[in-house]
């Protein structure tokens, strides 16, 4: 048409795929009336356990940029938070470029005030590396508590759940963890009444939970979820049976917590506030994440050393050690 076509040149900036992060960065800048704050560092899951919808709902694993994690951590500590809890769907699989969870923790230790401590919210047994344990053993600012979901204490149940370990592998790793960090407490999640869970399998679970000696149990009856592998199985357990098993494990959890708490004569408590209707009693948690009541403390905020007077209904009764 006598019109001279012109070549268009398109310019693209191409970044390494490792740099692409579809991470929902909505940090909370302040947790009202709490010294403890939660810091999300990871999202998504690639594991596809048979009972779980998280990979379908939250997508593949992805991690927050280290600089953003540090920025948020500093902001939280500047507003008075003394303990930061690192959270994620798979916190232990945090990975951004060449930075793993242990490296990120090392950065956080360097970039935050020495009075700030760190806690890992939940981590899979397959994600607890020697590097992480060495860092915990060397630095008391990483608190000696890990919440490691086992979900069942029977190999047959674990196989149907599509969990990536056996009971013996779990036990062996817990033993190694305790050797490296002797004062650690380890809690766990358990699902009761999973598809086809027999009385024998449940009895194995009870026995193995007792032998491992967790500090407490979070217990959940199995709940059917559309789109999961378990939803397509046969042999669903009656709700009344699952409820009975749940109550049995909750009673076991009380005993396990009591056993773990008996190890301690003194502790460090992070105070959170007064008990309702009792302003002379302060509530808080130990480094091992056991609840505590402190009677008539002189210091009513922050972190204090206490002598443990006793245990009532799974709660330490303490008095402040005066320095």
Structure in words:
With 323 residues, this protein is an alpha/beta fold. It folds into three domains: 24-143, Transcription Regulator spoIIAA (2-Layer Sandwich), CATH 3.30.750.210; 145-263, Transcription Regulator spoIIAA; 266-320, OB fold (Dihydrolipoamide Acetyltransferase, E2P), CATH 2.40.50. It is built from eight helices and 15 strands. It has a five-stranded mixed beta barrel. It starts with 35 loop residues before the first strand and ends with a strand. Residues 1-21 have low confidence and may be disordered.
SS summary, helix count: 8
Task: Detail the poorly predicted runs.
Answer: 1-21
- For the record, the CATH class of the largest domain is Alpha Beta
The Cα radius of gyration reads 23 Å
Average pLDDT taken over every residue: 91
- Oligomeric form of this entry? single chain
Q: What count of domains describes the coordinates?
A: 3
Query: SSE string, helix = H, strand = E?
Result: EEHEHEEEHEHEHHEHEHEEEEE
CATH architecture of the largest domain: 2-Layer Sandwich
Number of E strands = 15
The description of the largest β-sheet is: 5 strands, mixed, barrel
Distance between the termini: 93 Å
What level of helicity do the residues show? Answer: 25-40%
Q: Give me the secondary-structure category.
A: alpha/beta
Find the CATH topology of the largest domain.
Answer: Transcription Regulator spoIIAA
């Amino acid at each position: 048409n006598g019109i001279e076509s012109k070549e268009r040149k398109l310019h693209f900036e191409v970044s390494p795929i490792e740099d692409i992060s579809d991470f929902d960065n909505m940090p909370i800048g302040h947790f009202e009336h709490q010294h403890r704050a939660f810091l999300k560092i990871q999202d998504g899951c690639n594991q596809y356990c048979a009972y779980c919808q998280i990979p379908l709902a939250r997508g593949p694993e992805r991690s927050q940029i280290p600089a953003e994690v540090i920025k948020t951590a500093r902001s939280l500590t500047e507003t008075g938070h003394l303990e930061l809890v690192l959270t994620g769907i798979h916190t232990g699989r945090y990975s951004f470029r060449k930075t793993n969870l242990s490296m990120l923790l090392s950065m956080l230790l360097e970039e935050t005030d020495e009075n700030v401590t760190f806690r890992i919210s939940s981590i899979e047994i397959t994600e607890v590396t020697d590097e992480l344990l060495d860092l915990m053993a060397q630095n008391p600012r990483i608190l000696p508590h890990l919440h490691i979901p086992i979900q069942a204490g029977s190999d047959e149940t674990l196989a149907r759940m599509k969990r990536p370990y056996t009971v013996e592998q779990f036990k062996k790793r817990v033993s190694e963890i305790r050797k490296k960090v002797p004062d650690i407490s380890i809690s766990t999640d358990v699902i009761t009444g999973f598809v086809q869970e027999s009385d024998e399998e449940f009895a194995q679970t009870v026995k193995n939970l007792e032998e491992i000696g967790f500090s407490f149990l979070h217990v959940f009856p199995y709940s059917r979820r559309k789109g999961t592998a378990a939803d397509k199985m046969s042999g669903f357990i009656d709700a009344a049976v699952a409820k009975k098993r749940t109550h049995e494990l909750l009673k076991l959890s009380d005993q396990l917590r009591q056993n773990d708490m008996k190890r301690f004569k003194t502790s460090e408590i992070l105070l959170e506030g007064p008990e309702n209707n009792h302003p002379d009693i302060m509530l808080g948690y130990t480094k091992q994440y056991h609840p505590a009541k402190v009677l008539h403390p002189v210091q009513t905020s922050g972190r204090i050393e206490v002598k443990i007077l006793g245990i009532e209904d799974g709660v330490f009764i303490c008095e402040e050690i005066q320095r």
